[in-house]
Amino acid sequence: MSMGSTVSRLPMTGAGWRWEHTYAALPAVLYSEVEPEPGPRPELRWLNRQLAVELGLDPEVLAGAAAVFAGSAVPTGARPIAQAYSGHQYGHFTTLGDGRALLLGEHRGPDGSLRDVQWKGAGRTPYSRRGDGRAALGPMLRECVLGEAMHALGIPTTRGLAVATTGLPVWRETELTGAVLTRIAASHIRVGTFEQAVREADPGVLRSLLLHTLERHFPERRGEPEPAAALLDAVVEKQARLIAAWMRVGFVHGVMNTDNLALSGETIDYGPCAFLEVYHPEAVFSSIDHHGRYAYGRQPAIALWNLTRLAETLLRELAPGEAQAVERAKAILETFGPRFEAALLKGMRAKLGLLTAEGDDPALIEGLLNWMRERRADYTNTFAFLAAGRIPAAGGVPPEDDAFRAWEAAWKQRLARQPQSEAETAALRRANCPAVIPRNQRVEAALAAAAAGDLRPFETLIEVVRRPYDHEAATIEDQQPDPRGGADYRTFCGT
Ligand code: AMP
Ligand code: MG
Known about the structure:
Number of strands: 15
Bound molecules: adenosine monophosphate, magnesium ion
Mean pLDDT: 95
Number of domains: 3
Number of helices: 17
Radius of gyration: 23 Å
Oligomer: single chain
């Protein structure tokens, strides 16, 4: 944190920023004002022009503002703050806060929505502990490609607006190129923000945060007589849908600590995440998740565990007496399971092109998943095969397998029992089975090239992941599974 010195301000005339600071209007214990620590050589490496346009920003003006995207200058109207939060990390409570992120403020977009604009990697803050407040180019680009992929897949997510290098080296296991990611989010309010607020002696802090979050993300529920119950219920619903969407595409977040669960219902903090290659419920990619706490198949249970931590922070707002409040919380938390199951079943039916509901559908879905697990089949390519009616060029599906043929026959009979046309069911499948996901090896190759100064493979990959449901455009390279099935692929945290 640069104490005393003030970083230059840049007007960015014509950029289209419309700054607001609603989070900064909350009690001051929930954040700290912090100036970024500029690096010597700001250089813009990637600009998300598509997102800029969606936000009503002029990409040409943004392209000329490398200093802003590298955290060397603050755009006029922005007011950098680091947000305070706590969190349960791998089950253990810790005081955290933005150790390497600064919220510039909120931008009012042309659709009227308010979106956080945040720097990641712009220097130390009062919450940095022993960290350097910095980020490396590779992981920041990785966050961008995963965000674009998730967005294109139709899954709520934060997105990268720009990545700029600072000219400062960052030291991890080796020397890496320092970079700043400018991240756009519905907000950065997390379960951990509530875990922090509830520790304040003044009950007004939690109450303000509660009302602020309700107003910001669930304005349709703000007039309800029980605001805490309304918030918890709305967040439970969003998480049930979000986790079902992750499961549908085979996404493994990897570090579902309570500080990485956004109340907005967006996917946030792309650290050690990865997509399934071969299907396995116990798939884990994070190098530090030794016990599989955040394995693919455990994500719904962990989401509920995290939501239970949120409910605990809200107890005194839920009802006057503790016993009554606990009952109220339990009743809401109990809806997570059925809501998740319903969302998942809907998503899986869509993948199989089922437009009607039959009682045996869950068994049909289970049958396919079990087959995939036993045969170590590629999750994405198996569904792409069912969607497009032909084997993806890259393979990953053994079509001559008897067990698969038996399952396929049952599925075809099921399809024949619904009144809709083959065209309708095929369209549903294609819209729900991605032909393309960000394949782990392809992402790594693009990041390696970027580290060596060549951004072209990264730019190409962004274009590819932006059309996940285009089964005609997908090439062998786009659909190529990791030859080892991805089971030994490892991702690293804290980068
Ligand atoms: P994460 O695992 O990325 O969600 O981060 C967990 C906590 O560590 C958050 O409080 C981060 O702000 C903090 N943190 C991660 N990396 C750094 C870093 N390089 N410097 C300072 N704080 C960091
Ligand atoms: Mg985090």
